[in-house]
From TrEMBL:
The lineage of its organism: Eukaryota, Viridiplantae, Streptophyta, Embryophyta, Tracheophyta. InterPro entries: ARM-type_fold, Glomulin/ALF4, YAP-bd/ALF4/Glomulin. This is Aberrant root formation protein. Residues 1-24, 467-487 are annotated as: Disordered. It comes from the Eukaryota. It comes from Triticum aestivum (Wheat).
């Protein structure tokens, strides 16, 4: 066609012809007839060209084809395929060429979608299922500018129909299909804006039908093959639950997302997953371990399975239908976790996946914190200290960092307070032998002065608690430990030095870090007071350290404060007065620390 020559479809519209008498339909009928004739005559050389010609006619630009013409073209193709006299080789040739253009036309309005589905299902029923899986997966990766979600839904429905027709090597075929499906769903969901979110529900419903097809496969299998396919279906469900939950940030479909999650969670129960295994993550771990022995790369498409496991638990607590479906099993799993220290820590650490992610709504994160708070209590701390071997430090650090993110970024005060309560409870439940290590790691990795100040206050509380505990030991214990610094003393002093004498040199920048400086000084003051009591902790600050604290930490800081105050008093503006108000408590605690040090000198 010449560059400036209008297309046949455009001429149809311009001339006002009815779709049934349009030149485009005439060309389509002629192309289908030529295809049939080529195969009947054994002219294989021209058959491929004839099939390509049909596909080209069915691929007008978005501006050229009206919905009515699209519908009529699809009806013409479906009528051709349905004739008893249709040549099987012609059908096979069209199955290679038509899924993409048919799905694109089907994405238009009117009855186009139903007819497009019927055409693709005809190919699935009358052509090689294995070939159709490859053809449809390839079509999934084709970008579509107009109504892309409807295009994908049509293809996913075709894949679901095709999967049910697979007779052998079920697992191998599923391993080909699922990565393609999840890849394209993730890519397309990230492109949808808020106005088209209901289209995502249709997409998840179509993906659900893929799960239904795999479930039917499972019912026909036995022994370890059935177990393997059920494991794959379970991970597929968890990955989709994570994707669905990422859409729940949009309030207009929050309730609908919960209903979709419920349908996916039914796959989990069919596959042998339990609420206890989801709470602790053990079901996901055991499943991925078994599957990794077969094909480790295949598991990459289930990268959010752990998120999904935690999200099932959260949705069950926040969605009425989910809660009703879970029934007593969910409450029983919660109680079992609460009564077992090791499982409790496994469950606590599972929440890091949801709390650390930017993909999930604040409503989901708020319910995650509620569940976390129900799991962590004073009994947890006592039980944990009874376990000498506590292999969860790395996971706990990640969980606490996730809670910190909520404290910093949550949009409302109540949720930030809830996150802070969770942070304190989890830290207090860590074994006393590792608690200061965790706090030190959090402070050293803190990027926000206000957060650092909060963490230093928690250290101060721990120091006070450890000091009281030391004072309560019996006489034999006290005499045995006389003259020894407590094991956490050096760590605490390192943290104070980190703030008052930063590694980059010089005293701290008070304009930006007054909160953490005040907290560090309060912590130092507590240490000096404990040190002056002559208790078990009296050896925390030896003479050499006392001189360093005085000359390298406190005196330089006093000089800086004095200089800043002089400058601010000269300005006298509102900003200067605000800064003076921030410095006053710092100066007060600093002078008290200097007094305590001078008393020891």
């Amino acid at each position: 066609m010449a560059r400036d020559e209008p297309s046949a479809a455009a001429v149809d519209v311009a001339d006002g012809d009815s779709p049934s008498s349009s030149p485009t339909l005439t060309r389509l009928r002629e192309a289908l007839a030529a295809l049939s004739e080529a195969f009947e005559s054994g002219d294989t050389a021209s058959s491929d060209a004839a099939a390509a010609a049909v596909a080209e006619i069915l691929s007008p630009s978005d501006a050229d084809a009206s919905a009515a013409l699209s519908e009529q073209m699809l009806r013409e193709v479906h009528a051709f395929l349905s004739r008893p006299s249709s040549n099987q080789m012609a059908i096979d040739a069209l199955s290679l060429e038509l899924p993409k253009p048919v799905a694109k036309l089907g994405a238009r309005m009117g009855n186009c979608r139903d007819i497009a589905r019927a055409i693709i299902e005809f190919f699935a029923s009358n052509c090689s299922p294995r070939d159709m899986l490859c053809i449809l997966c390839e079509a999934l990766d084709t970008p579509v500018a107009f109504n892309g979600s409807a295009y994908l839904v049509i293809l996913l429905d075709g894949l679901a129909s095709t999967l049910t027709l697979i007779q052998r090597r079920h697992i191998e075929q599923v391993k080909v299909v699922l990565p393609a499906i999840l890849r394209v769903m993730h890519a397309n969901l990230s492109e949808y804006d808020g106005e088209h979110r209901m289209s995502t529900v249709d997409l998840f419903s179509a993906a659900l039908r893929i799960g239904n097809a795999i479930q039917e496969m499972c019912k026909t299998m036995v022994n370890h093959r059935k177990e393997e396919l059920c494991s794959i279906l379970g991970l597929y469900a968890l990955q989709n639950i994570a994707l669905v939950s990422s859409e729940s940030k949009h309030q207009n479909i929050l309730s609908t997302c919960g209903s979709v999650v419920l349908q996916y969670s039914k796959f989990l129960m069919f596959c042998g997953f339990t609420y206890l295994g989801l709470l602790t993550g053990n079901d996901v771990t055991s499943t991925t371990t078994k599957l990794s022995k077969e094909d480790d790369n295949f598991l990459d498409c289930f990268s959010s399975a752990m998120d999904g496991a935690s999200l099932v638990v959260v949705w069950t607590s926040m969605h009425d239908d989910m809660s009703k479906y879970a029934g007593a099993e969910f409450e029983s799993a919660l109680k079992e976790v609460q009564d077992n220290c090791i499982r409790k820590w496994e469950a606590i650490n599972m929440f890091r996946y949801v709390l650390s992610s930017v993909n999930y709504s604040w409503a989901i994160k708020s319910h995650s914190l509620d569940l976390l708070l129900t799991l962590v209590d004073d009994k947890c701390s006592e039980e944990t200290n009874d376990h000498v071997d506590f292999p969860y430090s790395t996971q706990i650090f990640a969980t606490l960092k996730a809670i910190e993110r909520v404290m910093i970024a949550a949009p409302d005060t109540l949720m930030r307070k809830k996150a802070f309560s969770a942070l304190k409870r989890v830290i207090s439940a860590v074994p006393s032998t590792q608690r200061f290590d965790i706090l030190q790691a959090l402070i050293e990795n803190s990027m926000f002065p206000s957060l650092t100040a909060i963490l230093l206050d928690l250290v101060k509380n721990e120091v006070s608690r450890e000091s009281r505990r030391a004072d309560q030991v019996n006489g034999s214990d006290r005499s045995q430990d006389a003259g020894e610094s407590p094991p956490w003393a050096s760590q605490v002093l390192e943290l104070v030095e980190l703030i008052l004498r930063p590694p980059e040199g010089g005293p701290p920048c008070l304009r930006d870090h007054s909160e953490e400086v005040l907290s560090a000084l309060n912590l130092l003051r507590l240490i000096l007071i404990i040190d002056s009591r002559g208790s078990r902790s009296a050896k925390m600050l030896r003479d050499e350290k006392i001189r360093a604290v005085y000359s390298e930490w406190l005196i330089p800081l006093r000089l800086i404060i004095t200089g800043i105050q002089s400058e601010l008093e000269k300005g006298g503006g509102e900003d200067e007065n605000q800064m003076l108000c921030l410095l006053n408590p710092v100066q007060f605690v600093l002078h008290r620390c200097i007094e305590l040090v001078e008393e020891k000198k």
